[in-house]
Recover the amino acids of this structure.
């Protein structure tokens, strides 16, 4: 090869024009900027120095986003309850949502619910917008067609196409995404086994949507995985590994595009083995410490014969080649010209896939989540990257969401949320999640000082639970 796998430009590509990611990437900050500028203008004059500074910062930031996203315009739409960016719902935390109420009220009070910012918008145009709003507030009503700025446009759009049902339970979408990805992967794996070359378009779209939900609703995904609705199937293992890997990648703050690539790579970790499984069995290939390099090389040859024509193909080459190697040891140099250690993506996927193998019992008896993590922590620093392993413990929790546990009070409870990372070592609270008592349905956050005397004694296996209440937090 003319260049090593880890040097390939595929791994350095940073294309970002993905329509359904824009609201996630820049939406919240646009809302914050609009709120800040209008409030500053309320306190000071529209042409005051403080307002000018805020307008310049907003205009400069907008230009950066146009360049990074390769977009020519950004449309902010508003309803009485939400903000949208280019038609996509902007998800805001509670504090930001409350602070932006005044902006929505102001714009919609003047029958304006869409502001379009075109590439090249300057600070003076932002100030012009603020001046127009202040004039409206003072009673000088302005018709939409009378507002004139080169790169800012105001409009009124039909709210019915934008707003969402406030009573809709967001957990339903998470359940549908997880179940949908399992179904799509089942079909995909089945067609691969029959020698087909199916498209991953619909799978990637689901992975993108899951990626958008990871930060806010990762706990629900973990709870769904722990329900173990389908056992012992490779396509379920692929989906679980993909979700765990994206959650871990998010915790190290990879950008959104790389999260999707991580999820797709983790999901496709075994597809080279589907068609070649019988051939490998006949050839005596194994996955033990001494023989896994030959197995890996076989998978790499299979992938490379298809041609690494995009980023995901290159990442699959890397993870296939580096699969099963300790994080801190040099890799065999059959494909690398210099001494290298496993790529970050390989280290992430390795932790994700091994955890699911242990908890699902894919290579022997299944382990409870706490015992699986304990087993993996024993290899931390020698096999698994210690920094990633500590983060992973906090991502899934020593007592993951959906687990039924016994408390020191004698009560049984179900884990609802993993604890927050509050200290520098990042795992100090991992054993103190938020739980829901099965008898009283009272919710208890064990990380709070008020509950310092209560601790979890053990995870109760499903067979030991009279009923299976692990799903009631979802329905």
């Amino acid at each position: 090869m003319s260049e090593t796998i880890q040097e390939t430009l595929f791994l350095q590509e940073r294309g970002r024009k993905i329509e359904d990611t824009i609201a996630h990437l820049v939406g919240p900050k646009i809302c914050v900027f609009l709120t800040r500028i209008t409030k500053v203008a309320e306190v000071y004059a529209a042409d005051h120095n403080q307002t000018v500074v805020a307008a310049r910062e907003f205009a400069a930031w907008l230009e950066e986003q146009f360049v990074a996203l390769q977009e020519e315009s950004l449309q902010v739409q508003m309803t009485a309850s939400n903000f949208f960016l280019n038609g996509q719902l902007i998800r805001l935390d509670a504090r930001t949502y409350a602070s932006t109420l005044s902006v929505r009220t102001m714009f919609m009070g003047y029958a304006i619910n869409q502001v379009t910012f075109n590439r090249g918008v300057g600070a003076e145009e932002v100030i012009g917008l603020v001046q127009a709003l202040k004039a409206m507030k003072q009673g000088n009503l302005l018709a939409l067609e009378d507002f004139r700025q080169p790169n800012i446009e105001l409009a009124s759009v039909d709210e019915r196409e934008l707003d969402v049902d406030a009573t809709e339970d967001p957990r339903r979408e998470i359940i549908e995404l997880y179940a949908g990805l399992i179904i799509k992967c089942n079909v995909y794996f089945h067609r691969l086994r029959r020698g087909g070359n199916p498209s991953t378009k619909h799978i990637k779209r689901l992975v993108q949507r899951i990626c958008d939900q990871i930060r806010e609703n990762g706990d629900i995904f973990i709870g769904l995985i722990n329900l173990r609705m389908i056992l012992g199937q490779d396509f379920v293992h692929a989906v679980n590994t993909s979700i765990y890997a994206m959650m871990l990648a998010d915790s190290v703050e990879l950008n959104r595009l790389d999260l999707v690539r991580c999820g797709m790579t983790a999901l496709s970790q075994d597809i080279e083995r589907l068609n070649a499984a019988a051939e490998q069995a006949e050839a005596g290939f194994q996955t033990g410490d001494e023989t896994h390099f030959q197995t890996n090389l076989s998978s790499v040859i299979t992938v490379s014969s298809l041609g690494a024509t995009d980023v995901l193909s290159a990442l699959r080459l890397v993870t296939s080649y580096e699969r099963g190697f300790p994080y801190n040891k040099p890799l065999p140099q059959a494909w690398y010209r210099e001494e290298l250690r496993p790529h970050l993506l390989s280290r992430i996927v390795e932790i994700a896939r091994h955890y699911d193998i242990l908890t699902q019992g894919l290579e022997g008896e299944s382990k409870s989540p706490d015992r699986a993590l304990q087993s993996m922590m024993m290899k931390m620093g020698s096999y698994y990257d210690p920094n990633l392993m500590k983060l992973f413990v906090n991502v899934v929790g020593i007592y993951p969401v959906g687990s039924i546990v016994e408390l020191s009070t004698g009560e049984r409870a179900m884990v609802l949320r993993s604890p927050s990372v509050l200290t520098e070592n990042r795992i100090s609270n991992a054993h103190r999640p938020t739980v829901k008592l099965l008898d009283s349905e009272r919710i208890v956050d064990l990380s709070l000082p008020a509950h310092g005397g209560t601790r979890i004694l053990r995870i109760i296996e499903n067979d030991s639970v009279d009923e299976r209440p692990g799903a009631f937090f979802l329905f």
In short: The mean pLDDT is 76. Residues 17 and 69 are 6 Å apart (CA to CA). The chain has 15 helices and ten strands. The two ends are 53 Å apart (CA to CA).
